Structure of Deoxyguanosinetriphosphate triphosphohydrolase-like protein:
Amino acid sequence: MTIDKSALGFGTGERAIYATDPWTTRGRLFAEGGSPTRSDFQRDRDRIVHTTAFRRLKHKTQVFIGPDGDHYRTRLTHTIEVAQIARALARALKLDEDLAEGVALVHDFGHTPFGHTGEDALHEVLAPYGGFDHNAQSLRIVTKLERRYAEFDGLNLTWETLEGLVKHNGPLMTEAGEGTRGPVPQPILDYCELHDLELASYAGLEAQVAAIADDIAYNTHDIDDGLRSGYLSFDMLEEVPFLAGLMKEVRDRYPHLEPDRFTHEIMRRQITRMVEDVIGVAQARLAELRPCSAADVRGAARTIATFSDEMAETDRQIKKLLFSRIYRHPDIMRIRAGAAQIVTDLFHAYMADPALMKSHYWVNHMAGLNEPARARHVGDYLAGMTDTYAVRTHTELFDRTPDLR
């Protein structure tokens, strides 16, 4: 994909006309005075970093649950990598870097312990009560569950940051009000009654670069962690022509490189090629659309910051490799089954006896609630757990806890 280097924003400090302007934000649900030293998007990012939810990401795993080593990614390290890539893309496209970084930093707040396994288990037990969606849970955390400020629940983030959080993967509904990926989760609909996030439109470009940065980051680091764990080998990477080409490039230049350095050289090239591909596609689509404002980006009929067709095919091939070699490996599936049991057991235990939840807030707020409301509170409590806390709590409540190693 060809890149127009003259149009890049590196070092200029210039913001494009189609970028989201921090000085004309649509505001917050609860009005606040401005800051003389920070834009509203800078304040959003800073509030996100100082949350309990952000700190908990340190002990929430991605793919490798209860790893034996300290070098595998957690939700926190993944989030930092996504934020770095999102900020680089935002700078290249002359967007608001603080907004892009903020959306990247908050995008995984709603994830449960034990990665997607925990989410699947929680969705199953909450199915009679509306199910569980990590994106909707992220919104609940930043608008309701974080209790830090005297005048409001949540973080009172700007409309633009919340829009990016909810819609970074595209519109959630059609103009006719139908869900684009199934029913829109109720927590999102409930919030939009108070603060309309315009679910039928695309998000601004800052949110779009955060979304594609997520894809780039986890594709790369799951390969890195897979090689480190032994579930992947360099021979397996040959199944993907793009990765095979990168390995040949590194071998030709460094024929005697040790494995760790060889892996890093592959990964850095993978990130670079994918980032450059997105920049080229975005530049081409912006040239076609000629947006004069962020509103024009939201009103476009397609995503602007995305992969080319060729790179999208590479993305599919990499995901296929990861699913077959790692995500569905018998060892991983055994551990996933144990993690799902932990989440399921804890849910039923807390529904039967809310006093088992070691928090006066949660226990006190359960009194007098109907069953669906109690289930949602239990779901909130479980989703906030780290892996280590969930395992420790299960050990305290049950005679046998699954071995996650």
Notes: Residues 259-289 form the longest helix (31 residues). The chain has a mean pLDDT of 92. The CA atoms of residues 60 and 386 lie 5 Å apart.
